[in-house]
Amino acid sequence: DNKINRLEVKQDKRRMKSKRKTEEHAAFNGVFDSFTLVNLNKILSKGIINEFVGIISAGKEANVYYALGEEDVPLAVKIYKIDPQNTKWMKNYIIGDPRFKKIGTSTHKIIYTWCKKEFKNLTQMKRHDILVPTPLLSRDNILVMEFIGEENGTPAKRLKDIDELVNPIEEMNYILDQISKMYLNAHLVHGDLSEFNILYFKGKQIIIDVSQAVSIYHINAPVYLQRDIKNVLNYFSKFIDSKHVPDVKAVFEKILKNV
Ligand code: ADP
C-alpha cells in the first residue's frame, strides 16, 4: 500500500512538473518571436535588464514579467504579442490620434506603434504628476518600466482585489482628480480605466495599462472619458453611500468646463 502511495506521489509530482512546463511554454509562446528575441538580447546585453525572474501576468495582448535591472533594481517588462487578431481594435485607438499619423499596415508596425504609444502616454502622464509606473525604455514591442510591488517581487494588488478601503471617499476623489488632470494637463483620456487597471500599493493608487489612452482631440475622447468616469464611480459606489457619489454627467461636465 505504502509503495503504491509513494508511486502515486511521484507520478503527481511528475505531472505537476510537466504541467508547469506547459504553462511556462504557453506564457512564452507567441511572445518571444525571433524579432523579440533579438531585441531582448540587445536589451540584456546593454545591461538594462540583468535577469528575467518570473511572469506577473499573461494576457491576450501582452505578458508582463518581473525582471531585475542594473544593480538589481526591480523592473516590470511588458512584451506585446505580435498577433494580427489584436491589431484590428487597436487601430481605433491609434487612427485619429494626431501624435501617430503614419502607422503602417503590417502587424509588426501596428504593435510597435501601440507599445510606443504606451511609453509616450506614461511619459506624458508622469510629466503632469499623474501617478503611473515610471517608463524606462520602449523598443519595438518591449516596454520596460518601474515595478510596483514588494521588494521580494510580489506585484502590487489591483484595486479590484482589495477587500477594504481605508477612506473610500478620499480614494474616489483622488482618482477623479487624476482623470481630470489627465484630461486638462496631460491632454489624454485613459480609455480603459477601472479597478482592473489601478494598482494599490502602500496606500497609493497607481494607474496602469495606458496603451489605449488617446489624445483629447481624438474623435471618441468624450465617449471614453465618460466611460472611465462611469467605471470608477461604479466601483467606488460599492464602498460609499450613494449620496456621496457624484453623477457621471456632473463629473464629466465639470472637467470640460475647465478646458
Ligand atoms: P494587460 O493589458 O495585459 O492587462 P497590464 O498593463 O494591465 O496589461 O498588466 C497586466 C498586469 O500586470 C496588471 O494587472 C498588473 O497586475 C501587472 N502589472 C502591470 N504593470 C505593472 C507594474 N509596473 N508593476 C507591477 N505589476 C504590474
From TrEMBL:
InterPro entries: Kinase-like_dom_sf, RIO-type_Ser/Thr_kinase, RIO_dom, RIO_kinase, RIO_kinase_CS. Keywords: ATP-binding, Kinase, Magnesium, Metal-binding, Nucleotide-binding, Serine/threonine-protein kinase, Transferase. PROSITE patterns: RIO1 (PS01245). It is an enzyme of class 2 (transferase). Gene3D superfamilies: Phosphorylase Kinase, domain 1, Transferase(Phosphotransferase) domain 1. Its EC number is 2.7.11.1. SMART domains: RIO (SM00090). One of its GO terms (molecular function) is metal ion binding. It catalyses: L-threonyl-[protein] + ATP = O-phospho-L-threonyl-[protein] + ADP + H(+); L-seryl-[protein] + ATP = O-phospho-L-seryl-[protein] + ADP + H(+). PANTHER family: SERINE/THREONINE-PROTEIN KINASE RIO1. Belongs to the protein kinase superfamily. RIO-type Ser/Thr kinase family. This is non-specific serine/threonine protein kinase. The lineage of its organism: Archaea, Promethearchaeati, Promethearchaeota, Promethearchaeia, Promethearchaeales.
